[in-house]
Design a protein that fits this description.
Length: 188
């Protein structure tokens, strides 16, 4: 048995050539692993660079789309503004025509001329109502500093406190937006 054990030990012992050969295999295997790791790193870096380039491209496209949207919105806004001005002017042109006719007609009497001016004024008021503009500020209304401008204060026992006594200029509004506040005299 001792002999068998010795033989097994001798078989298991490597010769220097075998040891060198095994060492060379290990080194080659490690180099291949290292080489694969370097290759894998390069491939991974290339993939990351590709993804970064795609994201940059997406960002640039998004920025260009936003810029186009902004320009298109501004252009549409400008067109709507121009169209609304044109609509208002078209509504006012008949009033201008009537004023010119009244100014050029010298054959009518003063009463007829006054009646024509009143008709033009009524026509103008109808046009601004049609556009959506409302007047405000009537004598007897309560004074509101948000929509009225007090240009004068008077003492009047017949009127209550902070009541509009006289209108100097009517106020105009479009919806809730004040175009011009009413200039009024207020009773204290």
């Amino acid at each position: 048995m001792a002999k068998d054990k010795k033989e097994d030990e001798l078989k298991n012992q490597e010769t220097p050539d075998q040891a060198a050969h095994e060492e060379a295999k290990k080194e080659k295997s490690e180099q291949e692993k290292g080489h694969k790791t370097k290759k894998e790193k390069l491939t991974h870096e290339q993939e990351l660079e590709k993804q970064l380039a795609e994201k940059c491209e997406q960002f640039l496209r998004l920025a260009a789309e936003y810029d186009n949207y902004r320009k298109r919105s501004q252009r549409e806004k400008d067109e709507i503004y121009a169209m609304s001005k044109t609509t208002v002017v078209k509504e006012l042109l008949p009033v201008i025509d009537n004023f010119e006719r009244a100014g050029n007609d010298q054959t009518e009497s003063l009463a007829d001329y006054k009646k024509g001016i009143e008709m033009i004024h009524s026509q103008f008021i109808e046009i601004i109502k049609k556009i959506g503009i409302e007047t405000f500020g009537e004598a007897g209304d309560a004074f509101d500093p948000n929509i009225h401008t007090a240009v004068m204060h008077i003492e009047d026992e017949k009127l209550g406190e902070n009541v509009i006594a006289q209108i100097f200029n009517k106020g105009y509004k479009l919806g809730e937006k004040i175009i011009r506040s009413a200039a009024v005299s207020v009773a204290n």
